[in-house]
Design a protein that fits this description.
Largest sheet: 7 strands, antiparallel
Number of domains: 1
Low-confidence stretches: 1-13
Helix content: 10-25%
CATH topology: Thiol Ester Dehydrase, Chain A
Number of helices: 2
Number of strands: 7
CATH architecture: Roll
Strand order of the largest sheet: 1-2-3-5-6-7-4
CATH class: Alpha Beta
CATH superfamily: Hotdog Thioesterase
């Protein structure tokens, strides 16, 4: 059989590189809780790969731990969730009235410490996608080595609208 004449299925649409401005338009998180610096690759409803540069200036290093700074594991899990949030919200043209919230964290494992100067490669792969909920396998790598992993579930809810005159 001659396969040269067969057409291969088209690859999934891939969105490349979201900078910090695009991320700020997507996520409601702000400093010091914004944990995604750049989106390196996004395949809708499949996976996302993001980048976080860990600097000595991060507020959490003041108390975790003085003299031996390490990024808290819970913040690595949060970074995976933020990546997944970008992936899910990318499905909507206008997502200003939507908010993603955690509904579960399972099988979290912390394998190596993350210290100032590390560059996190955060990946979230879809395990189950529903219209308002998603279950993802998240991983964080530094220099190609696995430092954290977890299964995260999140749900989309309506964002509470601010009343006039309130902050």
């Amino acid at each position: 059989m001659d396969v040269r004449n067969e057409t291969a299925p088209a690859p999934a649409t891939t969105l490349e590189m979201m900078d910090i401005d695009a991320i700020l338009k997507t996520l409601p998180h702000r400093y010091p809780f914004l944990l995604i610096d750049r989106v390196l690759d996004l395949q809708p409803r499949e996976r996302i790969l993001c980048l976080k540069n860990v600097t000595r200036n991060e507020e959490f290093f003041q108390g975790h731990f003085p003299g031996q700074p390490m990024m808290p594991g819970v913040l690595m899990v949060e970074a995976m969730a933020q990546a997944g949030c970008i992936l899910m919200l990318s499905e909507f043209e206008d997502h200003s009235d939507r908010l993603m919230v955690f509904t579960g964290i399972d099988a979290a494992k912390f394998r190596r410490p993350v210290t100032p100067g590390d560059q996190l490669h955060i990946e979230a792969k879809v395990l189950n996608w529903r219209s308002r909920a998603v279950k993802m396998q998240g991983t964080v790598h530094v220099d190609g080595k696995l430092v954290c992993e977890a299964v995260i579930t999140s749900q989309m809810i309506s964002r509470v609208k601010k009343q006039e005159g309130t902050e």
